[in-house]
């Protein structure tokens, strides 16, 4: 009986083991089959660029692209988008942009690759020293430039900006407008996190000026320091930065990188007014200089974009320097507001009520396809790359249907940045000298360079620096 039970036990164990290995074998065979099917699908995709139907049936994920595509032959099956003046440091990666897949690289050996469809330029580093010429019919040029015109004035002339098919700049006329690049969202404008009650601000006025100025980029094209220097003759201004410095920040906040530090923001929030002056005057060029005081519950005194009223949260949320004929008139108005609590708070009613009434601003923030300091959204560089990738694929699809390609171009009024001008009362100060000796000549020179560049690029062949400068001087 005992032997019989042992035999049954051993038989049961053997059957269990056999069943286990059988299941395991079937699973391996199934996985191998799935793997072969996946290889077969990928192979079929590589045999020619993705077609619309195939993109619906097989979707990649970004994290899978790095491991799925590794060889040179893979690259030759997809559109190549080459960062000619690198903004990213990646030598090569595949990215999924909705249904479309593109290969992004900074490797210039891809210039003559048959699959290269677009060259991406970062505006600050855009240079005539080397350009991807000759420019073939299917080669698009794309510009990403979120910076001030003073970084590269050549881009702010019609001759240069219209060389580009796709643009991402601060202009509302850009294909991907970055006008609100310094604004996280409408909720931060409504937030009262840093806001200090008016009664406390009035008390703080015993040791603080009504106005605060914080700039370390002195004598820029806007000539802002000249204006503030004259303004200081008519009203008290606390200036913490290197420009017109008269008041010290705590040691740990003196680095410009600390300007988003909570303690620095608390210092600014104590003031009634912030001088928010841009370093250059262009339509829609709006930086943190405007948004920061609005977020803090301080009234900005703004000088910069002529179209600023299109972007303010309400029609009474900032004081515009352009409304006053002289700094003394502005000083008089601020002194009046400083003494009149009711009138001063009328500039903060929108914030106190949490009411942003500007439909353009609300619409722009709602329709924006990228985020600021928001890990749940793509950043504007990724969005720019995908915009170009999607447009490249659109033309691939048009070609498959026998249609003519879509040609995008930057608008002539894309970057409206007039020649820098000095304030008429500033002829005896360093800012005026800076404009006369550097910024105005730089602007005029860049205009000549822009037209020379246009002429040489239209010849559609490589040119030397000597040829370029000879043409510039000829102008």
TrEMBL record:
Ranges for domain Fucosyltransferase N-terminal: 80-177
Record-linked SUPFAM superfamilies: UDP-Glycosyltransferase/glycogen phosphorylase
Catalytic activity line of the entry: L-threonyl-[protein] + GDP-beta-L-fucose = 3-O-(alpha-L-fucosyl)-L-threonyl-[protein] + GDP + H(+); L-seryl-[protein] + GDP-beta-L-fucose = 3-O-(alpha-L-fucosyl)-L-seryl-[protein] + GDP + H(+)
Localization per Swiss-Prot or TrEMBL: Endoplasmic reticulum membrane
Entry's Gene Ontology BP terms: positive regulation of protein secretion
Keywords: Endoplasmic reticulum, Glycoprotein, Glycosyltransferase, Membrane, Signal-anchor, Transferase, Transmembrane, Transmembrane helix
Entry keyword annotation includes Mitochondrion: no
Topology versus the membrane: Single-pass type II membrane protein
Domain Fucosyltransferase C-terminal: 210-395
E.C. number: 2.4.1.-
Gene Ontology MF term list: alpha-(1->3)-fucosyltransferase activity; peptide-O-fucosyltransferase activity
One GO location term (cellular component): nucleoplasm
Primary location class: endoplasmic reticulum
Pathway: Protein modification; protein glycosylation
Enzyme class: transferase
Pfam families: Glyco_tran_10_N, Glyco_transf_10
Family: Belongs to the glycosyltransferase 10 family.
Role: Protein O-fucosyltransferase that specifically catalyzes O-fucosylation of serine or threonine residues in EMI domains of target proteins. Attaches fucose through an O-glycosidic linkage. O-fucosylation of EMI domain-containing proteins may be required for facilitating protein folding and secretion.
Protein name: GDP-fucose protein O-fucosyltransferase
């Amino acid at each position: 009986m005992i032997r019989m039970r042992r035999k049954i036990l051993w038989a049961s164990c053997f059957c269990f083991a056999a069943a286990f290995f059988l299941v395991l074998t079937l699973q391996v065979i199934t996985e191998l089959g799935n793997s072969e099917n996946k290889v077969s699908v990928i192979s079929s995709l590589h045999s020619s660029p993705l077609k619309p139907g195939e993109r619906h049936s097989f979707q990649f994920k970004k994290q899978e692209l790095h491991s799925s595509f590794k060889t040179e032959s893979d690259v030759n099956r997809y559109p190549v988008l080459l960062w000619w003046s690198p903004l990213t440091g990646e030598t090569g990666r595949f990215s999924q942009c909705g249904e479309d897949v593109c290969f992004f690289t900074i490797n210039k050996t891809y210039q003559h690759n048959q699959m290269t469809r677009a060259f991406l330029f970062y505006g600050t580093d855009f240079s005539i020293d080397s350009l991807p010429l000759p420019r073939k019919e299917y080669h698009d040029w794309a510009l990403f430039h979120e910076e001030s015109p003073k970084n590269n004035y050549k881009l702010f002339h019609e001759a240069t900006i219209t060389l580009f098919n796709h643009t991402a700049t601060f202009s509302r006329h850009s294909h991907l407008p970055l006008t609100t690049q310094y604004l996280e969202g409408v909720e931060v404008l409504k937030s009262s996190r840093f806001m200090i009650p008016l009664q406390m601000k009035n008390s703080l006025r015993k040791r603080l000026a009504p106005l605060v100025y914080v700039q370390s980029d002195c004598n820029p094209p806007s000539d802002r320091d000249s204006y503030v220097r004259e303004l200081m003759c008519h009203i008290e201004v606390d200036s913490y930065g290197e420009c017109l410095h008269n008041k010290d920040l705590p040691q740990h906040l003196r680095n410009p990188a600390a300007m988003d530090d909570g303690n620095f923001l608390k210092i600014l929030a104590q003031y009634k007014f912030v001088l928010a002056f841009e370093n250059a005057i262009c339509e829609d060029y709006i930086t943190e200089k405007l948004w920061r005081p609005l977020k803090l519950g301080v009234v900005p005194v703004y000088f910069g974009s002529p179209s600023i009223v299109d972007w303010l949260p309400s029609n009474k949320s900032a004081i515009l320097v352009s409304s006053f004929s002289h700094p003394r008139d502005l000083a008089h108005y601020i002194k009046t507001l400083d003494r009149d609590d009711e009138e001063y708070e009328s500039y903060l009613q929108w914030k106190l009520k949490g009411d942003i009434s500007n439909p353009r601003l609300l619409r722009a923030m709602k329709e924006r396809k990228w985020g600021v300091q928001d890990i749940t959204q793509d950043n504007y560089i990724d969005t720019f790359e995908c915009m170009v990738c999607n447009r490249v694929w659109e033309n691939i699809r048009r070609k498959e249907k026998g249609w003519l390609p879509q040609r995008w171009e930057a608008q002539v009024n894309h970057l409206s940045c007039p020649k820098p001008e000095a304030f008429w009362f500033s002829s005896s100060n360093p800012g005026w000298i800076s404009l006369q000796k550097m910024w105005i000549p730089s602007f005029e020179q860049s205009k000549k360079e822009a037209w020379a560049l246009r002429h040489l690029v239209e010849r559609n062949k490589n040119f030397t620096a000597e040829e370029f400068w000879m043409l510039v001087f000829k102008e």
